[in-house]
Specification:
Layout (H helix, E strand, L loop, with lengths): L2 H11 L14 E5 L2 E4 L4 E4 L2 H4 L8 H13 L10 H13 L6 E5 L2 H16 L4 E4 L8 H6 L15 E4 L19 H13 L7 E4 L15 H11 L3 E5 L24 E4 L10 E5 L1 H4 L14 H16 L2 H22 L3 E7 L2 E6 L8 H13 L2 E2 L1 E3 L5 E4 L7 H18 L2
Parallel strand pairs: 3-13, 5-6, 5-7, 7-8, 8-9
Antiparallel strand pairs: 1-2, 2-3, 4-10, 9-10, 11-12, 12-15, 14-15
Helix pairs in contact: 3-10, 4-10, 7-8, 11-13, 12-13
Bound molecules: 4'-deoxy-4'-aminopyridoxal-5'-phosphate.
4'-deoxy-4'-aminopyridoxal-5'-phosphate binds next to α5.
Amino acid sequence: MNKNKILEKQKKYLFSCVATYYNEPLVVDHAKGNFVYDVEGKEFLDFFGGILTVSVGHCNEKVTKAIHDQTDKLQHMSTLYANEPQVQLAEKLAQITPGRLEKSFFTNSGTEANETAVLLAQIYTKCQDVITLRHSYSGRSYLALSLSAQSSWRLTPNVVPGVHHIPNAYCYRCPFGLAYPSCDLKCAKDIEEAIQTTTSQSRIAAFLAEPIQGVGGFIVPPKEYFKEIVGIVKKYGGLFICDEVQTAWGRTGGKMFGIEHWGVEPDIMTFAKGMANGVPIGATIATPEVADSMQGNTISTFGGNPVTCTAARATIEVVEEENLVENARVMGNRLREGLNALKEKYPIIGDVRGMGLMQGMELVGEKMKPDTEGTKRLMELTKTDGLLVGKGGTFGNVLRVAPPLNVNKDQIDQALKVLDQSFGQLGQ
Ligand code: PMP
């Protein structure tokens, strides 16, 4: 099929809410390493990796071979039967995750991983209330939509009760109008009043948060934030659920998991996206006593699937063997320096933030007004010049730059060059 035919069928046969980037959607044909190719053969340097999901490059040989081999051997039996790839992956997660996290439950997506985590916390604590942050994103089920705090993604007013959203640690636009560090972490301390005023009997099942808010626009909290807020959560008997869907596998540079930068140990962690380099998977890992509190019947037919578990283990092995946690740090620094230099040159860039290979640029007009249109135009310009970047932020005005973890110097420099050209053209 040619491009027009594919787009015509997309329009006719898919839900119209399946939104695509760009005025004319990019129709991808194939990809290799850090490059993707459209149906007309045009090459693009991929600095978004299918939303931070292609961790070790497209069609990575080691991962693809492991998938092929496992597909030939055993593809599916469901969790009603035990299989080796599932326990091997679970053991690996227990070994590399921080603290006492040890037992996993596998699903197919980040949404399901978060559903599982919240249900588990509610069962363990025998309590309903959950606190999460404004500008967060947790997925698209009823519960996950209720947890998400960006109104454009919440398609229904019928939200699940018991979810409370407190202001996030968004220093560029401090919800309290304060400045770090003289703010004394008011945003973290605010959770105490939220617990005392909005929950039942001042008890909570959990506080759920991303170490760096992803869809929210790569919002990085101050370094003491998580210690402060998790300390208060514990005081009220709540569990800390850490959503590592975007920040895991070295993405933030120098550490395997985003939360390891912040010096706290989660009771539950959730994963998806980059875990299996593009093969659908979700995982929820918990401490043994929390995990074992979930009794009775529950099942995910595809959870623990031998092929997806094999893909995940192969992806994690590539991250380890090729030292990609360190590569993300070094390349992330190079990328960040380049983006900082662009900020000096182009006033539309109001803020550059992020860690490792998770860097965002918030585009603004006068008085920090979110420049949603400028962001869209910038995306078009980078596409024309053969670079794919993503976008996020509650107002759609944050460029998200997140290449695969094995990106190299030349690719970083190439992306920076295209961004420079695009910002230059934007002003014309
Ligand atoms: N949590 C976070 C932090 C996410 O970024 C996403 C997806 N953008 C999800 C959960 C939901 O994952 P999925 O789309 O796989 O359901």
